[in-house]
Amino acid sequence: MAESPRRICIFTGSSPGDRPEYADAARELARVLVERGYGLVYGGGNIGLMSVIADAVLERAGEVVGVIPEFLVGKELAHRGLTELRVVKSMHDRKAVMAELSDGFMGLPGGIGTMEEFFEVLSWAQLDLHDKPCGLLNTRGYYNDIVGFLDRAVAEGFLKAKHRTLLLVGDTPAKLLDRFAAFIAARATTRFERQPI
């Protein structure tokens, strides 16, 4: 039986942001994803950093699967040049399909929607609903305050230290994907050790 493709789900902005470094980091991530044999799963949009990373993966002949709700297609925001575009009924369906298709989750700079989507999958990891890596690409220290918030939550007794370690952070795409690879390897070892003799 053929092995299923490895894919990383990216949550990022429908805006490009005000600094060119954000788009540069998205393009660099696309390069590293394709070089390491990962496909991209993302929200299916043709705007902002979402479009930047999708286009950059496609330019390198990588696989891009977009998942978009019908109401956004109606607003003509869907990317029509993807490897595959899945149109779903709702935002809830979108997140479920993206999670099912992906082997890990990564947040690039973005706003409320990016944070909502990323923290939902991170909370699923905390609840043992999946054991896939979750990480933030911390371009220009964009996520420093979020990381600090989670450290404060540990210090104040609202988050267990073991759950804080579920969040992987890297300031370059290569470093973050190295952390993903180490997380997946550790998970595989743990699974092997749990198998009955």
Explain this structure to me?
Helices cover 49% and strands 16% of the residues. The chain is of the alpha/beta class. Strands 4-3-2-1-5-6-7 form a 7-stranded parallel β-sheet, with helices on both faces. Helix 1 (20-35) packs parallel to helix 2 (48-59). It starts with 6 loop residues before the first strand and ends with a helix.
Q: Tell how many strands the DSSP assignment holds.
A: 7
Helical fraction: 40-55%
Structure classification: alpha/beta
The biggest beta sheet, please? 7 strands, parallel
Strand order within the widest beta sheet: 4-3-2-1-5-6-7
The fraction of residues assigned to DSSP E strands is: 15-25%
Order of secondary-structure elements: EHEHEHEHEHEHHEH
Tell me the overall shape: globular
Gist of the model:
The chain is α/β, with parallel strands linked by helices. It is 49% helix and 16% strand. It is built from 8 helices and 7 strands.
What secondary-structure arrangement, pairings included, does this model have?
Elements: E1 7-11, H1 20-35, E2 39-42, H2 48-59, E3 64-69, H3 70-74, E4 84-88, H4 91-101, E5 105-107, H5 112-126, E6 134-137, H6 144-155, H7 161-164, E7 167-170, H8 173-194
Parallel strand pairs: 1-2, 1-5, 2-3, 3-4, 5-6, 6-7
Helix pairs in contact: 1-2
